[in-house]
Amino acid sequence: MITHHPSLLRPPILSLRIGVLGRRPTALAFLSATVASPRPPTPPLLRLRHVRAAAGGASRVGRDGGKGAAPPPALGAALLDFARSNFLPLALVGGVILGLLDPNLGCLAHKYSLSKYSTFGIFVISGLTLRTKELGAALEAWPAGLYGLASILLFTPFLAQFIMQLQLFPREFITGLAMFCCMPTTLSSGVTLTQLVGGNSALALTMTVVSNLLGIIIVPLSLAMYIGAGAGVSLPTEQLFKSLVTRLLIPLIIGKVVREASKGIADFVDGNRQGFSVASAVLLSVVPWIQVSRSRSLILSVQVKAFAAAIAIGVLLHLALFAFNATMLQILSRLEQKGESVFAKKEYARAVILVASQKTLPVLVAVVDQLGGALGESGFLVIPGVAAHINQVLIATQYCYLSLAFSWEPFLMSETLCRSLSIHS
């Protein structure tokens, strides 16, 4: 049974052609046929732009069901998204600014040793979020992991003696950067960035855990060798070792034991990793806040160019670590002739470059706090480390972005960084 009139089933273009045979089409008929005719196919490049726009939320469904251009995201939403993506640098900078604006609250926090408890909490959280089920997968890449540990704990601390030769006032800026060189790798950002860039996260996790555990023994020795001798100060190595065990190793073990003892806690931590990262960042920002509050009057007396010089040295230091590790991996990859070298595999090379080129700030803070002014004003020692930590996170993030966007080899680090700096200049 036919439920529609046959004329309604004819396409408009067919009606137009029939009309042309009988009479000339009117302007209204031509316009209606043109509007109803199918659109030409969209070029591939334009389709890609539409897909990107849709992914970015540039096209939404209107009230009438049709898709129209949506207004750009509100300023508040954009700022919130930026804060979530850069919470750690913002927290560190916020702590410094708060200490400069009003030192009274920070001095009160120092009176009750809040920095010690915040450092303890940071490493408890690190133990809670530490997943070791994939550590066995890193055994295949043990030569790359061994090189990474040597670079973190032996090679890069050697740069401290060259930094100590630089002349800058106040002297604590140089000493703080040299101490930063002697630290182990970061506890979380190295593994996170390795996952982002497609590196081997198990290898990154192994280097992170082992370097921080061995760092409890090696860091005091490196400080005494490269910093204490150059500064003319005899560092309390035994006391520093005991402090690192108490404030770093024990809370790390406590967090890890709690995680392994309860599957419910482990699932809760894994399901709220972003919240724990925010808590860790807040605890970390407590330390520069207290140190800056205590040294506010001295910090305000320092010239701006001294801060700029310290920041520039920190940037050059991180770039030097990137270039050194990338070059060494390239050399090691060519030494092995049989089959594909472990050092030449992208996933392993990226993990080593990212993890071995970063230094941790909480350990530096714990060391500075334990020394009690033996190497100078604590606030001056911590501020260059805060700036260097922010710089290394930003540079490593740009490396990950460029690696994902252009699939560049990690060995082309110098070219990558040059292009990254040119993009944002």
Automatic annotation (TrEMBL):
InterPro entries: Na+/solute_symporter_sf (IPR038770), Put_Na-Bile_cotransptr (IPR016833). It comes from Panicum miliaceum. This is Probable sodium/metabolite cotransporter BASS4, chloroplastic. Belongs to the bile acid:sodium symporter (BASS) (TC 2.A.28) family. May function as sodium-coupled metabolite transporter across the chloroplast envelope. Keywords: Chloroplast, Membrane, Plastid, Transit peptide, Transmembrane, Transmembrane helix, Transport. It is found in: Membrane; Plastid, Chloroplast envelope. Pfam families: SBF_like. GO terms for cellular component: chloroplast envelope; membrane. It is a multi-pass membrane protein. The chain crosses the membrane at residues 144-164, 176-197, 203-228, 274-292, 304-324. Gene3D superfamilies: 1.20.1530.20.
